């Protein structure tokens, strides 16, 4: 069946996420997780923001006024040597010169995003005839203080909740809890190095992003944050009833797995460098991470839907996506409180692998390429923050890819062995091949790139799952193939984003399987795709890019 599995298939089983409630002054109860889960120490919430712009009292102002100095004999002015008309002319000319150099700035109390690139002309690729004015706060350097508010989109102020849930303080972690990301990772050579504010702006310019792609990301993050549930989770099927949602059930998904929804929604925040320790979405990310941790079982299981009946095909997807989130949050912040939960999530994946190298809906089940790809991405994310993954796991994974390869080079792949190749599964498998060690000049990768370029993004036949994986493959590959793909991808995705009304910033769930995950699924993958310029450093060009950026 042609491209039957263009996205992760999901089921219709129900789950009820736990809730949060406060107990006593300044304390709260963690969400009730599944029975038997260990008492994982919570992540402390961001500290309250200091009050900006406080006025000085009269006494304070007087104290800061410079002390008077002694009077001195006046010095004759040299201007007295010239006639009055000449002095007046000089003063007016100087005044006009100063006025010509004067630039009026707006309110600097709330920084705005300076979009990273400029377009050479109005009809540049990816442009629209008009783009609504967008004000969005800049991604700030590290600060432990959360902002007091977000930004305004089309005149609509989106205020953050002023009170974040308080959590029990962790025990003394010594120096481990305060390691910087550079202490945890291998410097800027890691795949997450492009997410810092300075690197991100330059990489957008160098890798082919535009002002419009960055504006689309900004809009999408605002929309996702508005549709977070009170307990910190997201929901495929119930996002429209979130506290700040517009209550418009347009694009509600049929999936009932809030672990999957929460993990997918957090990925684009982390992709933009927004963590529980820095950025204007600290509270959003913090609450999402806390909710995910509350769902983990002692054996590392993050599949969700604990009370599901029958065959639930969403759960291994959910586990891998949640594992990626924990690993990325650990890598970006160096917060060792995430290390043990992240390691247990990877251990669960390792133990769930089938003997022939694949993964599917249940542990130890013979694999399919769709579920397989998410597990590999989770394991590679863990390796980037020094978590333990047996080399044997990757070796068996390579053997699984050999089994679903449909051509002699390795450029096309099927959903399962002895099935026909599809663009979606080929893109996902090729990305796995790249992370498992294929060099850029591998004949299979060249054949695969040519195959993907025959299936460029098309607005009339959307397939966000395919676009998400193929965009990463071609970005890593680089060169003219990447330029060709990127030109089409960014144009199509920017044009497809909702730009008006309460759904502005989101993407309609169009294409095969998109209705299962709904608007949250579609928007999350679209944002991750548009963040490709900095979300992961290009595998085959990291050193060259870093050297040039350091100049």
Structural commentary:
With 551 residues, this protein is an all-alpha fold. It has one domain: Alpha/alpha barrel (Glycosyltransferase). 42% of the residues lie in helices and 1% in strands. A two-stranded antiparallel sheet has the order 1-2. Strands 3-4 form a two-stranded antiparallel ribbon. A hairpin with a 5-residue loop joins strand 1 and strand 2. Helix 6 (258-271) packs antiparallel against helix 7, helix 6 runs parallel beside helix 8 (315-333) and helix 12 runs antiparallel to helix 13. The longest helix has 19 residues, at 315-333. The two termini are 51 Å apart. Residues 9-37, 48-77 and 103-189 have low confidence and may be disordered.
TL;DR of this structure?
This protein has 551 residues and is an all-alpha fold. The protein has helices at 58-64, 84-101, 181-184, 197-207, 211-226, 258-271, 282-294, 315-333, 339-352, 369-383, 391-404, 423-435, 443-453, 464-477, 479-496, 514-530, 532-535, 542-550; strands at 21-22, 28-29, 152-153, 156-157.
Search tags:
mainly alpha; Glycosyltransferase; two-stranded antiparallel sheet; single chain; 551 residues; 4 strands; globular; 1% strand
> How large is the radius of gyration?
27 Å
Could you report the average pLDDT, rounded to the nearest whole number?
Answer: 75
Sheet with most strands: strand arrangement: 1-2
CATH topology name, in short, is Glycosyltransferase
Residues in helix, %: 40-55%
Number of strands: 4
Assembly level: single chain
Extract low-pLDDT stretches.
9-37, 48-77, 103-189
CATH architecture: Alpha/alpha barrel
Q: Topology as H/E string?
A: EEHHEEHHHHHHHHHHHHHHHH
Please give the largest β-sheet: 2 strands, antiparallel
The secondary-structure class comes to mainly alpha
Q: Identify the CATH class.
A: Mainly Alpha
* Coarse morphology: globular
Number of domains as seen in the coordinates: 1
Treating each run of at least 4 consecutive H or I residues as one helix, how many helices? Answer: 18
Strand content: under 5%
Spatial separation of the terminal alpha carbons = 51 Å
């Amino acid at each position: 069946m042609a491209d039957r599995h263009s996205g992760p298939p999901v089921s219709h089983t129900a789950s009820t996420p736990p809730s949060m409630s406060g107990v006593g002054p300044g304390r709260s109860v963690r969400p009730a997780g599944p029975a038997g889960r260990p008492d994982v120490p919570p992540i402390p919430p961001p500290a309250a923001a200091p009050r900006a712009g406080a006025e000085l009292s009269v006494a304070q102002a007087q104290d800061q006024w410079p002390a008077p100095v002694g009077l001195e004999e006046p010095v004759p002015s040299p201007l007295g040597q010239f006639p009055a008309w000449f002095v007046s002319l000089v003063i007016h000319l100087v005044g006009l010169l100063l006025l010509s150099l004067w630039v009026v700035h707006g309110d600097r109390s709330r920084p705005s995003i300076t979009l990273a690139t400029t377009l050479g002309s109005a009809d540049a690729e990816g442009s629209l005839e008009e783009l609504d004015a967008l004000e969005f706060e800049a991604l700030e350097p590290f600060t432990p203080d959360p902002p007091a508010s977000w930004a305004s989109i089309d005149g609509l102020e989106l205020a953050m909740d002023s009170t974040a849930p308080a959590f029990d303080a962790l025990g003394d972690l010594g120096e481990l809890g305060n390691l910087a990301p550079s202490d945890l990772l291998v410097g800027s050579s890691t795949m997450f190095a492009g997410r810092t504010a300075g690197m991100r702006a330059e990489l957008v310019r160098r890798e082919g992003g535009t002002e419009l792609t960055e504006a689309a990301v900004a809009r999408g993050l605002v929309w996702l944050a508005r549709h977070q549930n009170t307990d910190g989770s997201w929901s495929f099927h119930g996002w429209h009833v979130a506290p700040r949602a517009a209550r418009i059930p347009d694009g509600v998904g049929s999936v009932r797995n809030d672990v999957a929804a929460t993990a997918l929604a957090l990925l684009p925040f982390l992709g933009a460098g927004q963590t529980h320790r820095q950025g204007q979405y600290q509270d959003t990310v913090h609450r999402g991470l806390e909710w995910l941790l509350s769902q983990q079982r002692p054996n590392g299981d993050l599949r969700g839907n604990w009370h599901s009946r029958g065959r639930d095909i969403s759960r291994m997807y959910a586990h891998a996506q949640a594992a990626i989130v924990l690993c990325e949050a650990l890598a970006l912040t160096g917060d060792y409180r995430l290390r043990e939960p992240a390691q247990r999530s990877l251990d669960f994946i390792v133990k769930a692998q089938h003997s022939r190298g694949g993964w599917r809906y249940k542990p130890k089940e013979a694999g399919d390429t769709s579920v397989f790809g998410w597990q590999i991405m989770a394991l590679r994310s863990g390796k980037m923050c020094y978590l333990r993954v047996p080399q044997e796991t990757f070796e068996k994974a390579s053997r699984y890819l050999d089994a679903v390869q449909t051509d002699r080079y390795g450029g096309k792949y099927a959903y399962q062995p002895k099935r026909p190749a599809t663009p979606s599964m080929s893109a996902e498998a090729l990305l796995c091949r790249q992370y498992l060690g294929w060099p850029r000049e591998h004949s299979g990768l060249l054949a695969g790139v040519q195959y993907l370029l025959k299936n460029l993004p098309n607005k009339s036949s959307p397939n966000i799952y395919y676009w998400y994986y193929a965009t990463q493959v071609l970005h890593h590959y680089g060169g003219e193939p990447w330029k060709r793909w990127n030109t089409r991808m960014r144009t199509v995705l920017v044009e497809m984003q909702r730009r008006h009304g309460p759904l502005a910033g989101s993407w309609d769930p169009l294409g095969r399987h998109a209705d299962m995950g709904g608007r949250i699924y579609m928007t999350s993958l679209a944002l991750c795709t548009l963040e490709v310029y900095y979300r992961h450093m290009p595998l085959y060009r990291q050193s060259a890019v870093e050297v040039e950026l350091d100049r």
